[in-house]
Amino acid sequence: MRKHLGGKGANDGASSGASSTSVKPVVALVGSTGYLGKSIVPVFAKAANEGQFAAFKILTSSTPKDELKSAASDKVTIVQVDYASPASLESALEGVDVLVSALGASKSTEAAQKSLVQAAAAAKVKVYFPSEWGTDLDVSPYPFPPLDAKTEHVEEARKAGLKTVVFVVGVFSDIILLPISGWFTAPNTVHIPDSGKNKAVFTAKKHIVQYALQAVILAAQDPAKFPDKVRVWDDNRSWDEYTAELEQVLGRELIKNVIPKEQLVQDFAAGPSIGGLGRLLAADGLTDYSDNHNELLNPGEKYFKRQTVGETLKEGPTTKRTIVSREITLPTDRRWARWISSLPIAKQHDQQVTFLGTSPPTGRSAPDPTMFAQPIPTLYNNARNFKVPKDRVTTRIRIWSASSPPITQVSH
């Protein structure tokens, strides 16, 4: 189990509600172009322009694109930084009260995260929200190296003297039908961990941003009294309830694939994945966040109304998602990735490719589908991560399309 990060219990410490605050913080964001960061920018910019923040700084290591530039105003500034230069970061963070990271804590961002912590400590940032935005890792007894970077980063930030707030939201409701979530990896099958009675937590991305906004404002009032870990959600129900709602939203009956705990353990040992970890935690009853900070940050649903997974799906194109299944021969030179990227549906960034195993057997475990459920452009860039056996083999793939109208066939 990950070392406990400490913190006050739900609704302890700071008073609920952030509208009657007096401190107007200077807020900085890193990771503004990522999946979550893009959604944070307009909401935080609006908060700054309306006087909830004294100022909002958007830190970026790349040349700002027009979409980001459009957020700039008298209260919103875009600052280009160099993560390899502590002086650059420290200068950008001068005068910042609250730093929010959506960089994505992983081995690939490890150096940038270290520099960020050092600069934030030197600039005397009062509150730091690291890039967590997911499952409560404190409760997990299962080692998973890809997420170790998050644990280590939080510990480093606290050792550096930063008030560090871990933000736990469960799974993004928006991606429940995508293979990477680990719950729904076939057109008519929902994967239920051990028992449909166990609860799991989902939060819509737009509400994660709203929770974060209130947390930033409230934490700035009295950092010492604000919890060290915040757990929030939109939906906290059993898998039986989620499955019933999915059937209603999708308009079809789903196959309930109940996976016993023993099988989940074996699968995770053979091919650890984020989806596999989530299923294990759910099987253990560790994804029930009945102890939470919903009322602290959104008292009486004052700032927004929580919504179910089904309500979130109805707002997006996900319910139009169709599947195209193909059997192709993969060459050892990985030209298959270029072929996939040339498909008409590859033009849409939300395509998902799921590898379903190889034939004939290659003498090794088939890859966990959730490890390779990636947007096609990402898949192409990371093609080297999937090692094709020396002999040409036939591999079944599934291409998930959220196009409208739905694409039902492709050719090659």
Instruction: Spell out the CATH superfamily of the largest domain.
Output: NAD(P)-binding Rossmann-like Domain
Regions with little confidence, pLDDT below 50 for 5+ residues: 1-9, 318-337, 343-412
The assigned structural class equals alpha/beta
Q: How many domains comprise the coordinates?
A: 2
Residue share in helix: 25-40%
Overall average residue pLDDT: 76
Oligomer: single chain
The third-level CATH topology of the largest domain is Rossmann fold
Main β-sheet, spatial strand arrangement:
3-2-1-4-5
Report the radius of gyration as a whole number of Å.
22 Å
The number of helical elements comes to 13
Structure, described:
This protein is of the alpha/beta class. It has two domains: 26-314, NAD(P)-binding Rossmann-like Domain (Rossmann fold, 3-Layer(aba) Sandwich), CATH 3.40.50.720; 321-401, no CATH class. The chain is built from 13 helices and 15 strands. Helix 3 packs across helix 4 (110-122) and helix 4 (110-122) runs parallel beside helix 5 (145-159). The protein is globular and about 55 Å long. The N and C termini lie far apart (47 Å). Residues 1-9, 318-337 and 343-412 have low confidence and may be disordered.
